[in-house]
């Protein structure tokens, strides 16, 4: 009888850095700057898998890749016409038509199947997490800003976002739904392939067509405040009074803009971080 075993070897490594700077300039301006940076990754050293190199399928090996590496097909382009389909490798995902995704036949056997999947992008969990900010104070004025960001993170979008894939019964319809292949717009430079009424097995495959870089940099907090001079408070029971304007999630810089890239979702069906501006005051008695 065969024996089940957990065979393999992996390694993890990374770095964690932080810095903090404080300084008074001529006893008038106080400056604080700070930042942190974390990089963490993993790698298969040995994997319990066939000898893919000997089988002529080296791209199938997990060795050298992260433990949570994403896998999928390489999308070459969209099919142009019926002649293009007839002269291309057979794809094992049901019926497909012009405007559907054409995948690369990595093993050159004339048939697109699991053996044509390879490592694409990287991991969903970001390998880089960082943040930085500054605080300033001059007389009664104070200012603070904090940024946060992530890097080296990719996500394969869900097929649920394709227009009409759920027949209008579930999920969101995004404002770029017209950015797709049609008979009148047979462009290769579109976000969506041909629309189908209901699920399209061919276009739903995990592939580079749906792979997106989810790295971002966000202005998380921004605040401007003014503290009343002590002499204004003489004769009152208040020892300190400060008024401020505070903004949260004001700006996000990312190559992905269909929804908040920080959401752990491939279809955008989660409530996003709220952008807000508030005015308030602090009083100390």
Summarize it.
With 285 residues, the chain is mainly beta.
From the structure above, extract its key features.
7-stranded antiparallel β-sheet, two-stranded antiparallel sheet, elongated
| Proportion of residues in helical segments | under 10%
Evaluate the radius of gyration: 27 Å
Note the run of SSEs as H and E: EEEEHEEEEEEEEEEE
Query: In what order do the strands lie side by side in the largest sheet?
Result: 1-2-9-10-13-14-15
- Judging from the principal axes of the Cα atoms, what is the shape? elongated
Counted beta strands: 15
Provide a descriptive summary of the structure in words.
The structure is a single chain. The chain is mostly beta strands and 285 residues long. It starts with 7 loop residues before the first strand and ends with a strand. The model has no long low-confidence stretch (mean pLDDT 92). The strands form 5 sheets. The protein has a 7-stranded antiparallel beta sheet with strand order 1-2-9-10-13-14-15, with no helix packed on it. Strand 9 and strand 10 form a beta hairpin. The chain contains 1 helix and 15 strands; from the N terminus they run ββββαβββββββββββ.
